[in-house]
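Researcher: Quick one. four chains, 674 residues in total.
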Amino acid sequence: MAEIDDSPPRRPTIYDLAQIAGTSPSAVSAVLNGSWKKRRISTRLAERISRIAEEQGYAVNLQASMLRRERSRIIGMIIPKYDNRYFGAIAEGFEAMARERGLFPVITCTQRDPALEVEAAREMMSYQAECLIATGATDPDRIANICTSAGVRSINLDLPGTTAPSVVSDNFQAARDLTRFILERIKQDFGVLAPLYFIGGRAQDHNTRERLRGFICAHEDMGLTVPSAYCFMHGYSASKTEAALAETGIDERCGMFINSTIALEGFVRWFHSLAAPPEFRFGCFDWDPFARFLPQNIGMMRQDVDTMLAKVFEFVEHAPSGTVNIKIPCIFEAANG
Amino acid sequence: MAEIDDSPPRRPTIYDLAQIAGTSPSAVSAVLNGSWKKRRISTRLAERISRIAEEQGYAVNLQASMLRRERSRIIGMIIPKYDNRYFGAIAEGFEAMARERGLFPVITCTQRDPALEVEAAREMMSYQAECLIATGATDPDRIANICTSAGVRSINLDLPGTTAPSVVSDNFQAARDLTRFILERIKQDFGVLAPLYFIGGRAQDHNTRERLRGFICAHEDMGLTVPSAYCFMHGYSASKTEAALAETGIDERCGMFINSTIALEGFVRWFHSLAAPPEFRFGCFDWDPFARFLPQNIGMMRQDVDTMLAKVFEFVEHAPSGTVNIKIPCIFEAANG
DNA sequence: CATGTATGCTCAATCGATGAAGCAAAATTG
DNA sequence: CAATTTTGCTTCATCGATTGAGCATACATG
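Model:
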């Protein structure tokens, strides 16, 4: 069948609209970007142009517009994963808050891969992002340097850096509180006061270190010492956590501090693979709506995403002077497990 | 303190690099975008320019580059939420597969808000996206029209439309299988063959309708009729599902088909709010690593995200002729609950 | 009626990268 | 050695929107 070449009704430009309206491209531009009042275009012409733009299905070419303008209004974010509620909430909240402020959010997920993080940061620079939020970056200062040398501001979220302002959870305090809660609970339920296991995270990771510090501190508060063999830090991986637990004999009737929901996935997989699942009590740093109801779960430490993002956007609007590292308290939620 | 104005080491352009290298902007451009072999630039000059670009921290201005080029290589996706594993996996997989193919993925989350969906689609057009994937759109044809009138291809994912090619789960078959599995299980565990409750989703929603059809069909297969009062479809909202369940008296020892993880959130909240939680068996359409281990959960129907995305990218590369609607089988995973 | 000012537009340069066309010098060929 | 080809670059128009400057015309003022 012979096709008629109606194929490329190419996206209309302001030149096309100007032609149709019998006016100049600059009038069209002014009308469509809202500067027409200031540029003394008559209401009559403005309405006509708007109507024609509508009819023609005109959409501004942001590439051209941003090239000419000084500001792109793009705000970038890199984030490790979308596989848990914490990062999911950060991504959703970030988009919503950016839009509220008339900014264009662009998020890229970097799989905790340092090379991808760097690549993504460079990509954001190329998009002329005005500001980049580095969430949970493996090397925040590296990202901050990339931004600085492009004249772009950056803010660290979740994991702090030393070059750019940072907004993180108060990991130490929250871990200390959660640990105390678990210790008290095993004493109450099992009648023993014994050290907990610490499961998940990376030993080099700032947040893990802070939480481990709070964990150990809460033990000391109660006169306990944590044997180093009680700490399982095999990265943010369910499978590695599961494998590590499977290799070790863990006593019945003890307590565990699970350092992330991803580690919790490994933990529950291991737990349910056991022929005779033992009695435990665990608490988890980070929140999940289903994990809440898992048997033996006694509480989750939920990070306060809304407050963290509010702080981030404060910094977006007024860059703080000097190196700041804001710590946001977490919200403890007793579980029903 | 008097600040020295070293402030704007403005982002260097190819003109700046050309100046430094004592060459022309087009040579710089050719070297930096890889077309220099073809444009007969000497290796010597190419190396010098590359070094200078490196030193100066040059990053191409994609706005300018894309304006000039014919192709943007941007591929857009709109997605409702990031609050469950299904959409999370889609987002992560989409980004990875797009990058593998040398495309720039841009994802926007639209909160199941039809107005936001339209706004986001228009924004993608303005970014000169070459293709838009509409995931779980409330009105896929609306989005497809916006794309078509901008000369952009679109593909529906998760929810089908009539104008653009669609890739969805085989909701009917998977719902039928899941329903049969639950029915058999309650017969085995409770010794009764009784209709199940259907919980979650929207009655107007295509996927819900298909699943309901499979649900009813599986009942008929076993000689059962589903009372209409057994269906609770209060949207994709945990709170509304919870509230609806709280208002109704549901018998002990029965089975339920939960139509999404978000409905499951409402269900478990309701369940755990009861003074004396009754004996149930439930299965859930969609998968979650923790929900898997919830007591009384007997199985989850996991959507095959990798296969769905593979199909989507097939369509991205070779647009299918005519209206196609590909149905991808789901993967049943028996639960340990 | 000359002068001033407000109105309603248009012109043209510009943002940074790209690539077709062109040009000079070097290398090859007959 | 003249003619041709190859090499290695540069020039310049272009993508679409923006915006400072400018230019008629209409209107108001002294």
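Residues 23-27, 39-42, 45, 64, 66-70 of chain B lie near DNA strand D (CB under 10 Å from a C1').
Researcher: Thanks, that's what I needed.
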